[in-house]
Write a structure and sequence with these properties.
Structural class: alpha/beta
Radius of gyration: 32 Å
Oligomer: single chain
Number of strands: 12
Low-confidence stretches: none
Mean pLDDT: 85
Largest sheet: 8 strands, mixed
Order of helices and strands: EHHEHEEHHEHEEEEEHEHEH
Distance between the termini: 48 Å
Length: about 325
């Protein structure tokens, strides 16, 4: 038999509390029996009954596992390019600490959760460039993600479509991805005035490469700090950057993917992980293993049956 948990001080505390309480109960009951010149032997069977179901409850808490069963374990992998917007608007703080920092943190959560997948990283603002090709080394990829910042590109602006086109080219040109499930995941606030080439999105659909867009930001928006001041328009007014949800949603629809709202108050990374896991990936490992299962419920059911019997069966403590 194997145990899921070890006997800890908590379990010992229950045991000593039970024994100490019963010792006081015995002492008081037998003292009263002597005063009444009678017998209190009837409480002893109850003590053994309660000791048995306490032991059964403790055993069930420890998670006993026994018996073996064969189980097929399959590990599947996918090839995914992560596209990260590093334009100046990603410095907005409507999503704390900033849109970019939030996106970077969530991307690392995503790669840590999907450990069997290969990821590549593309950064973009006015231009797009590959910072990391597809790799299974998630630690190295996360180092690149942590180093991403909006000052890496000298010119302001955003060209989301260029990043999508670059990811498409890399996925189609790499022969190692041809038998894999492929996807593109875009993290951006959607502030892009350009129109994507329909041919690029058509190729994504033709090659079954879904485009999943993650909107980072809020509708209320936030000004963008530049030094000690804020970014201003030609009229000198402070520019307020807002999430362009419709643009990202339309991109996901045209790319046969899904749009996910990247708000910090919602567990959207779990939703995003679930979407990616629905993609049928290549099998990278398959084996048959023998596993033991937790049989705590057997002991728990017997303990509950004895507890019910303890409640229903009345015992006369003193015989007068």
């Amino acid at each position: 038999m194997h145990w899921l948990y070890r006997f800890s001080p908590t379990e010992w505390g229950f045991v000593w509390l039970f024994l100490g309480g019963y010792a006081l109960y015995f002492a008081r009951t037998f003292w009263l029996a002597r005063q009444l010149n009678t017998s209190a032997q009837a409480i002893i069977p109850k003590f053994f009954l309660r000791t048995i179901y306490l032991a059964l409850l403790l055993i069930s808490l420890l998670g006993p596992s026994f018996g073996q069963a064969d189980q097929d374990v399959t590990t599947s992998g996918r090839d995914i390019y992560l596209l990260l917007d590093i334009s100046r608007s990603m410095d907005a703080t409507d999503v704390p600490p900033s849109r970019l920092e939030r996106a970077k943190f969530d991307m690392q959560q995503l790669t840590d959760t999907l450990a069997a997948n290969r990821f590549g990283l593309i950064l973009f603002s006015t231009e797009a460039f590959v910072l990391s090709p597809l790799t299974a080394d998630h630690d190295a990829l996360n180092r690149f993600v942590r180093d991403a910042r909006t000052t890496l590109t000298p010119r302001p602006g955003t060209n989301i479509c260029a990043a999508i086109d670059l990811a498409r080219q890399k996925l189609l040109a790499d022969p190692s991805t041809r038998k894999s499930a492929r996807a593109i995941v875009l993290f951006s606030d959607g502030e892009d005035l350009a129109t994507c080439n329909r041919a690029v999105l058509a190729q994504l659909r033709a090659y079954d490469i879904p485009l999943i867009t993650v909107g980072i930001g809020s509708e209320s928006g936030s000004p963008i700090r530049r030094g000690t001041d804020f970014v201003r328009d030609e009229a000198g007014q402070i520019v307020r950057s807002r999430l362009n949800r419709n643009f990202l949603r339309n991109l996901a629809r045209d790319g046969r993917g899904q749009y996910v709202e990247g708000m910090p108050t919602t567990p959207y990374v779990h939703e995003l992980t679930g979407i990616i896991r629905t993609l049928r990936g290549r099998t990278i490992d398959q084996r048959r293993v023998a596993v033991t299962t937790n049989k705590y419920h057997y002991f728990l059911l017997v303990a509950l049956f004895l507890i019910i019997g303890d409640v229903l069966i009345a015992v006369r403590t003193f015989r007068l």
